[in-house]
Design a protein that fits this description.
Blueprint lengths: L1 H22 L3 E9 L10 E4 L2 E7 L5 E6 L3 E8 L6 E8 L7 E5 L22 E2 L2 H5 L8 H4 L6 E3 L7 E3 L8 E2 L2 E3 L14 E3 L11 E6 L3 E11 L2 E10 L1 H5 L1 E4 L4 E18 L4 E18 L15 E21 L2 E18 L3 E18 L5 E22 L15 E5 L3 E17 L2 E12 L4 E14 L8 E12 L18 E13 L4 E19 L3 E19 L5 E16 L5 E3 L6 E9 L5
Parallel strand pairs: 1-7, 11-13
Antiparallel strand pairs: 1-4, 2-3, 2-5, 5-6, 8-12, 9-10, 12-13, 14-15, 15-16, 16-18, 17-18, 18-19, 19-20, 20-21, 21-22, 22-23, 23-24, 23-25, 25-26, 26-27, 27-28, 28-29, 29-30, 30-31, 31-32, 32-33, 32-34
Length: 619
């Protein structure tokens, strides 16, 4: 009997022990640590069990972590990260079937200056100025418009306050691409159809912690934003902005001058949707658009512009609009390789009615496909290869007085022009291929080599252009922090202004405009918040377009641009921030046949701009 009892107790003990061992399988808790409000991942955050801090994990560059828990049950977790407020009581109940990732949000610590580590969209530092959207939006006089605020940076000039189009380093506004990184010269081979400068703009990601939004109302307009998560792996944002001066004032009339001005009206919108399909695939949908319009009426009065331009008598109106939709598929192929494919559509329309001169109505409809692969084939080499195909359908409806004019003509009297009509649609097919290698020869010295190939069937032109750059970080013991030296050189081309290549109005046999850029620069980080940058550049322009009595236009002009720029900047570490920029430059254009040389119409030899911001409190 006693033996049976021991056997019974032994069997029970084995059964209980087996049950305990079965329930003691470790639980792998997966999660993310994100910044509260922005949803940005936090690198290096420590996640731990409050009652047993030997159970801990650290978040990676994507904010992700895996924490091993001994058994299922109830836990209290803590999370800490440099520059963020700690979380010391995060309740958690686990089970053997737990699968949903845990998201932990930490609020930035506003009592200490933040330490922010970000990955650049483009690693190149040659002739590059980086400003955040927040920095540019807060500049006085910019009205919250980052593009308008660009005129505070070195080398950027504006024609007048009515125009938001920048002329950068001796180039006209039409020489720039609207693609916030500013590349005033010697930019990489991935950028196409531009000889002036590149403004690389990116729309930020939607917040992922909770829904939110805001409404801003100013004296001239209002804007609204709504954003937030849709599901665990999906988020979206949508914003809209509109002026309302036109609703309040309508028109302004000056009877003495015989002028009636219709108040300008604008609106724009932006939308973004992100779906993190899995660990390696992200799908992004972007859409944005804008519309601007204005008008005026002039009577025959010697006090207004009709004295010199009689074709302006009557009513005139101007409207520009565009809408863009694009889908981006980003796929991480390995730890060192990422592929991005973009498919999109853009529709632009320009509509004008100019007094007695006539009407212009042109629609540009573009379909495009772009693919880019970034990878590291061997150590210290970052390679990018890609291509772009675009089909542009031009739909013109023109009935206008035409007189060939260029920057050398000066005053252009359209009253002596010939009335012409044109309604023939035509396509333009263009292709782009590029390759770039960023070779880190030593920890302090990097060479960038690239090749750009482009072709279009309308002008039947093909160009292959090299683009080079170098970066050297000098850090002697006697000089700290480090100094960055940069150099860049490249050749570029650009399609001529649209009206100059249309048959009847222009010359469809024109060549593309060409340019060569050279730049040298040095940047010194003075301390954690102060830096100074000095840069010199030289540009040459060839095959610029000028008028011709026989074929309307020819590639008969050239030009140069040179200058020196200084940027002294204080980062927003505490309450004071801002920058001082100074530019000395010279830009000239020359008629090759006659040798006539004139300054560029946007040439401003000396520009000095200062921006100072003060935050009354840390919040």
């Amino acid at each position: 009997m006693r033996n049976r009892r021991w056997i019974s107790y032994g069997a029970g003990a084995v059964l209980v022990l087996g049950m305990r061992l079965a329930s003691a399988d470790p639980i792998l808790l997966q999660g993310e640590v994100l910044e509260k409000g922005t949803g940005d991942p936090i690198l290096g955050a420590a996640i731990y069990v409050v009652d047993n801090d030997s159970l801990n994990a650290t978040s990676d560059e994507r904010g992700r972590f895996t924490l091993s828990l001994p058994t299922a049950g109830k836990y209290s977790l803590g999370a800490v990260a440099v520059g963020f407020e700690s979380e010391k009581s995060i309740p958690l109940t686990t089970s053997a079937t737990i699968r949903a990732p845990l998201k932990i949000y930490l609020r930035r610590d506003v009592t200490l200056p933040p330490v922010v580590i970000r990955a650049e969209r483009n690693a190149e530092r040659v002739s590059k100025t980086v400003m955040t959207g927040a920095e540019l939006r807060q500049i006085p006089g910019a009205g919250g418009d980052p593009i308008k605020a660009l005129q505070t940076l070195p080398g950027v000039a504006m024609g007048d306050d009515a125009s938001g189009e920048p002329a950068i380093r001796g180039s006209s506004p039409e020489d720039n691409v609207d693609s916030f990184n500013l590349y005033p010269a010697a930019f990489g081979p991935e950028y196409d159809d531009v000889t002036g400068a590149v403004i690389d703009v990116a729309l930020r990601k939607p917040r992922t912690d909770r829904p939110g939004g805001k409404v801003n109302v100013s004296l001239i307009g209002a804007d609204a934003l709504i954003e937030g998560p849709i599901t665990l792996h999906q988020s979206a944002l949508f914003s809209v902005r509109r002026s309302y001066f036109d609703l309040l004032l309508g028109t302004i009339e000056d009877q003495d001058k015989g002028e009636k001005i219709v108040i300008p009206r604008y609106y724009d919108y932006q939308g973004k949707y992100i779906w993190e399909v899995n660990d390696t695939n992200i799908l992004t949908v972007n859409m944005n658009g804008a519309s601007d319009s204005m008008g005026f009426t002039l009577t025959d009065n010697p006090e207004n512009e009709t004295k010199h331009e009689p074709y302006l008598i009557g009513s005139s109106s101007f409207k520009q609009s565009y809408d863009t939709q694009a889908i981006t598929w980003s796929r991480r192929l390995s730890t060192t390789a990422v592929n991005k494919m973009h498919v999109g559509h853009m529709r632009q329309r320009e509509s004008s009615s100019i007094g007695t001169a006539g009407t212009i109505d042109v629609t540009f409809d573009t379909l495009f496909l772009r693919d880019e692969l970034r990878f590291e084939p061997v150590a210290n080499h970052g390679v990018s290869v890609g291509g772009n195909y675009a089909k542009l359908q031009v739909e013109p409806d023109l009935d206008i007085l035409d007189l060939p004019c260029d920057q050398f003509t000066g005053y252009c009297d359209y009253t002596s022009g010939t009335r012409k009509q044109y309604t023939t649609d035509f396509p333009v097919h263009s292709q782009l291929l590029f390759a770039k290698d960023r070779w880190r020869i030593t920890p302090d010295f990097t060479l960038i080599g690239g090749l750009h190939w482009t072709r279009d069937d309308y002008l039947d032109s093909t160009y292959t252009e090299p683009r080079l750059g170098a970066e050297w970080v000098w850090s002697p013991r006697t000089l700290s922090p480090r100094t960055l030296f940069t150099a860049g050189w490249g050749r570029y081309n650009q399609f001529p202004e649209g009206g100059k290549v249309i048959d009847l109005f222009g010359n469809p046999n024109l060549e593309r405009l060409r340019a060569t850029h050279s730049v040298l620069g040095v940047t010194q980080q003075l301390d954690a918040s102060w830096s100074v940058k000095l840069e010199g550049y030289y540009k040459t322009f060839d095959d610029l377009v000028t008028t011709d009595p026989n074929v309307n236009y020819i590639n008969g002009a050239s030009g140069t641009a040179r200058g020196t720029e200084l940027l002294l900047k204080k980062e927003s570490v505490m309450r004071w921030s801002g920058w001082l920029s100074m530019t000395y430059s010279q830009s000239r254009r020359r008629v090759d046949a006659t040798g006539e040389t004139i300054p560029l119409s946007f040439d401003q030899p000396l520009i000095t701009t200062g921006v100072l911001r003060y935050k009354p409190s840390a919040n």
